[in-house]
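Support request from a user on the community tier.

User writes: "When I paste my structure tokens into the form, the page sometimes reloads and wipes my input. The last time it worked, I copied everything first. Here is what I submitted, just in case something in the input itself triggers the reload:"
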């Protein structure tokens, strides 16, 4: 509780208190609003001869300077006007002083309700650690600079992400066109294969017919038929060459399509990594935006 009060911000206006509570919520810092109590009067502090002999020279609220509001809050919370301070602690409780501070320790005495026995508690005084404003200012400036740097990185990532999305769409469109061309080539090849089989069947039929004619017709008739068959064979050879060229074109398209598919998968993995990186930076940005405020 003492640490909580010492780390608190003290305001003298309810609106200021509400503003600090709203904006310091992330830092878990208490905010107290001080209202002056006009009826509160401090008891005058007088040092007796016995106190002076023991080294008591002042009351605890008299050994430090602070704004009135801060001192009033500390006094009201911890009864500093009822605590004495100096270097000696021996025999202090005999003077009726039950709360005593030295630079090293905090002495507290309590009297038993039943037997009147006096027991003492000694707590070491922690070394004072003050919050330096310049340190806070430097930290705030560092966080602001880091925030600006992160915002610039996020902007670059957003631009890169958009470029990757555009490039991915272009690759997908090109891949779709290549797939369509591939289907057309496959259909053409299948049609050519079917025509080739039909032509081979015709050639086979004509060959058999020629063999039959060799047995029945004269030489001139056979030669005329052979010339006709040779012309058909020439046409078939030309057709076969055309088919082979188209088949090679189909193979080249297949290789190009596979290459594009590999490129698309690489772009998809890169886009996924960029999207994950972008989401992490967005979380980091939201966190530091909250800290910067």
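"...and here is what came back when it finally went through:"
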């Amino acid at each position: 509780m003492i640490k909580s009060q010492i780390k608190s911000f003290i305001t003298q206006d309810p609106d200021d208190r509400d503003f600090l509570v709203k904006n310091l919520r992330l830092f878990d810092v208490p905010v107290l609003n001080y209202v002056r109590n006009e009826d509160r009067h401090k008891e005058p502090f007088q040092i007796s001869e016995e106190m002076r002999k023991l080294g008591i020279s002042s009351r605890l609220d008299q050994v430090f300077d602070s704004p009135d509001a801060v001192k009033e809050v500390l006094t009201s919370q911890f009864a500093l006007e009822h605590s004495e301070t100096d270097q000696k602690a021996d025999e202090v409780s005999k003077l009726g002083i039950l709360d005593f501070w030295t630079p090293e320790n905090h002495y507290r005495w309590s009297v038993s309700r039943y037997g009147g026995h006096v027991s003492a508690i000694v707590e070491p005084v922690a070394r004072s650690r003050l919050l330096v404003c310049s340190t806070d200012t430097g930290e705030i400036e560092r966080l602001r600079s880091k925030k600006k740097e992160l915002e610039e990185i996020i902007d670059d990532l957003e631009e890169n992400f958009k470029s990757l999305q555009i490039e991915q769409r272009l690759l997908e469109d090109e891949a779709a066109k290549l797939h369509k061309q591939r289907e057309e080539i496959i259909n053409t090849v299948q049609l050519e294969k079917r025509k080739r089989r039909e032509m081979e069947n015709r050639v086979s039929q004509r060959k058999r017919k020629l063999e039959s004619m060799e047995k029945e017709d004269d030489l001139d008739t056979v030669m005329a038929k052979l010339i006709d068959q040779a012309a058909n064979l020439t046409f078939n050879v030309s057709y076969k060459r055309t088919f082979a060229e188209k088949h090679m074109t189909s193979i080249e398209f297949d290789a190009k399509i596979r290459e594009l598919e590999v490129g698309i998968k690489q772009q998809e993995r890169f886009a996924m990594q960029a999207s994950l990186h972008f989401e992490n930076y967005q979380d980091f940005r939201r966190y530091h935006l909250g800290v910067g405020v």
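Agent notes: The reload is a front-end session timeout and is unrelated to the input. Residues 34-130 form one domain. The chain has two domains: 34-130, 135-292. Escalated to web team.
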